[in-house]
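Residues pack. One example:


***
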Amino acid sequence: MPAQQWIHRGLMLLAPYQAGALWIGLLITFILAGNHRRLVSWRNLACLLLLAPAAFLVDAIEWEHRLMRGEGSAETIVTWVFRCLFGFTFLAVLWGLFGSFLAPRRAWRPNVPRKALVVVGLLAVVLNACVVFGRFPDDAGIYSNLGAQRWLETGTLPYGDPGLKGPDSPGHGAAATYSPVLFLAHMPFQFLLGRSHNAADADPMSVSYRWPPLLATQLACFTFQLLALVALFVIGRQLRDASLGWLLVILYALSPFVLGLGQDAVGYVDGVRVREPGIGGLVYISHIAPPALLLMTFALLRKPVLAGAGLGLASACAYFPALMAPAFLGWYLWRRAGAWKFLVGFAVVGLLTVGVIWKMTDDPQGRGAAKLFLESTLEHQEGARADQYGGSPLSFWAHHPQLAKTWKAPLRGDSQLTSPAFLILAGLSLLGLLMAGPWVTPARFALLLVVVPAAFQL
């Protein structure tokens, strides 16, 4: 067996299963950050609210398979699972809104000495590496990696690439649904590992097509994870001291949502049990990159131009961070310092992104680059057709079709951007402009920022 396979096999064996990820997160959070003197406390309630949804994501993929097989009990169980997930996520929205007023002004103090935190933190980084390189990346990494390679081959973004769109394309168009930032993030590692050269008109579905190496997306994902951990350490030092920085690193790196939930082993490769990537975590670069860029933005809060550029980059990566712009703008406006600088940084990155999409999207049918972009990205991810992500049976709305007709149906045209649910989300986004007043400390501001991604999940 080649050395590379031995290394991969060893890392695979060291990566925890979903039950291990859940217990690691629960134990580490309570031991390092819980209130040991008063079990019934706001701190412990916050920890519980943070981790409770993880319990409902265990074996989520298996329940999807049971739904597909038509097992009657699965329908009832999955319906209640998503009701609970919806409820906890809604509580997170409320926690963010009210926490920006009521949360303690001072940051938490870790329960153990700094030296112990350093050791645990470094071990957590090693464990993250085992997960990233010991598991196979899921579709987000595979297809954004492919989209990056096609961009290099054709000289144009995948949004107008006929080889990457439609029901007969890889992943039913998945390689054309990710952002320019995710595509660009893969390119340095593709060059580093040696590009797979194909003709510009090559068919990615052909057996002769050479796909990019999976290691490229694993390296890109781990780079984003390291960026997130560095940003968290900086944030902790800004809020209190290095001990808090290490605590934040540990809580994030060992979170069950980062380590991965959803499914365990489903087969064998070279005698080793192969694990399905599940539904999130370090095998999904699309789940790791946006938080990393948002954390970097928060770490740069004292430098408005860089914070604006960081939020622009995060928005160009996953789109929804753009809805946090009013809260950031409100932060600077209320303090009468840096608002224009923030807007300049945000606008420069935003205009560069729009320019790249406009100039580098092939549009032979004259439909318009903006139309192709929205069709490939937001509509593909939010639409309800069978080949779109919004049509997945794994959602609250799929099990409550009448509610979906009321809240998710577009009010005008066929764009999800006009649905009542999205309009409420936009309203919450604008509310951040008013709620980031001088009474909001940086720690409370972090809670306020939670509102947008939590509401976006709903």
About this structure: The chain has one domain: 3-457.
